[in-house]
Task: inverse folding
C-alpha cells in the first residue's frame, strides 16, 4: 500500500511551505490571508483537481481514449459553524472525439477511483460535471 508524506514548516516572515518529494507549495497560514499562496481549503480543492486530472491520465490507457486536452475548475461551499467544507463542485472539460457513452464511462470511472474525491465525499457532498471541449 502506498504511503505519502508531506513536511510543512512556518517561514520566518509570513506564511508556510509544504514539501513533498522535490516539490514545494507556499501555504497561506496567515490570519489576514495572502494572495500568493494556497489556504487550506484551496489546497484541498487543488488536491481534488489534481486527482481528477490524474484519473483522466490513468483512464486514457484503460478506456483507450485519445484526449487532446483536459481542464478542471473546482469550487467549494464553506460552512462557518461548525467550520467545514459543505460541498465541493467541479466541472471537467475533456477535448476528445470519443463517443458520449465513452465520456460518460470516463466520468463514472473518475467518481469511483479518485482517492481524494472519495475521501472528501465522506465529509461533504462532491458533485461534478464532465463537458466536452474547452472551458469558456
Result:
Amino acid at each position: 500500500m502506498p504511503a505519502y508524506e508531506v513536511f510543512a514548516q512556518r517561514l520566518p516572515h509570513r506564511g508556510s511551505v509544504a514539501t513533498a518529494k522535490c516539490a514545494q507549495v507556499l501555504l497561506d497560514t496567515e490570519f489576514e490571508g495572502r494572495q500568493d499562496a494556497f489556504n487550506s481549503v484551496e489546497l484541498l480543492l487543488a488536491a481534488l483537481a489534481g486527482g481528477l486530472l490524474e484519473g483522466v491520465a490513468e483512464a486514457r490507457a484503460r478506456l483507450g481514449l485519445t484526449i487532446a486536452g483536459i481542464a478542471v475548475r473546482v469550487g467549494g461551499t464553506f460552512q462557518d459553524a461548525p467550520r467545514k467544507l459543505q460541498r465541493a463542485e467541479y466541472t471537467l472539460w475533456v477535448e476528445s472525439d470519443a463517443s458520449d457513452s465513452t465520456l460518460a464511462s470516463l466520468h463514472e470511472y473518475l467518481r469511483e477511483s479518485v482517492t481524494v474525491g472519495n475521501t472528501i465525499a465522506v465529509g461533504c457532498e462532491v458533485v461534478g460535471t464532465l463537458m466536452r471541449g474547452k472551458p469558456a
